[in-house]
């Protein structure tokens, strides 16, 4: 049986996987869905301001160590792809599979800021205008978006990742492309690159970006392969 560690994207917490987790557990697997530092409701402003990509990678590595996990599947959604890449590079011996779920796949020196679109960079700037350190969740019509979303630490979005190359030696690497938001996705070019890259398995699902909520069955099926 596998051990899954599920890492959410920006503004989200463990709750974003609440429709996928029971499907994995019903198949007999162990699941840890994370809420990253700075995204928890009880954290103070100082914690949010100090949280960066290193902090979030440490969240994952700490779980691997404290739970004594030695054969993990890391799943990262959106910004979570940055986190699982950094964590896997630090703890490659504990990880057997990476799944980037409509997520960034960085190379050394890149950041979420450098990899995303100009529209998203502008939303980061505008969203951080209130505090200077936390990006408020973007508005989503028609209902304003999921109310559990929280401001996301700006430092984590702009910090460059440092990779040694250990992440490239993870035995299995999957990229899941959500094709249901073609007009706005920042991942079309990444999908094309990974299709041609050795060692990557690329899958498409006809879902919007938040596939865990829109198509949990399809996501679970791909994770269970």
Structure overview:
With 225 residues, the protein is of the alpha/beta class. It has a single domain (3-224), classed as 3-Layer(aba) Sandwich (Rossmann fold), CATH 3.40.50.1820. It is built from ten helices and eight strands. The chain has helices at 21-26, 45-50, 53-66, 80-90, 112-115, 118-127, 154-158, 188-195, 211-214, 216-224, and strands spanning 3-7, 30-33, 72-77, 95-101, 134-135, 152-153, 172-178, 200-205. The protein has a six-stranded parallel beta sheet, with helices on both faces. α1 links the parallel β1 (3-7) and β2. α3 crosses α4. The radius of gyration is 16 Å and the shape is globular. It starts with a strand and ends with a helix. The relative contact order is 0.17. The mean pLDDT is 96.
């Amino acid at each position: 049986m596998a051990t899954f560690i599920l890492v959410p994207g920006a503004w989200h917490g463990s709750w974003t996987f609440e429709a996928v987790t029971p499907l994995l557990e019903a198949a007999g697997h162990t699941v840890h869905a994370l809420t990253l530092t700075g995204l928890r409701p009880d954290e103070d402003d100082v914690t949010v301001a100090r949280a960066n990509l290193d902090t979030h990678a440490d969240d994952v590595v700490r779980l691997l160590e404290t739970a004594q996990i030695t054969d993990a599947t890391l799943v990262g959604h959106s910004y979570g792809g940055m986190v699982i890449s950094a964590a896997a590079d630090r703890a490659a011996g504990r990880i057997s599979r990476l799944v980037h779920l409509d997520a960034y796949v960085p190379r050394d020196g890149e950041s979420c800021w450098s990899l995303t679109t100009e529209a998203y960079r502008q939303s980061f700037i505008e969203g951080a205008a209130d505090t200077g350190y936390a990006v408020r969740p973007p508005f989503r019509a028609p209902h304003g978006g999921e109310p559990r979303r929280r401001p996301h630490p700006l430092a984590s979005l702009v910090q460059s990742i440092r990779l040694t190359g250990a992440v490239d030696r993870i035995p299995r690497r999957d990229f899941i492309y959500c094709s249901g938001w073609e007009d706005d996705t920042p991942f079309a070019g990444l999908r094309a690159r990974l299709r041609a890259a050795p060692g990557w398995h690329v899958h498409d699902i006809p879902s919007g970006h938040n596939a865990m909520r829109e198509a949990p069955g399809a996501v679970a099926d791909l994770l269970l392969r």
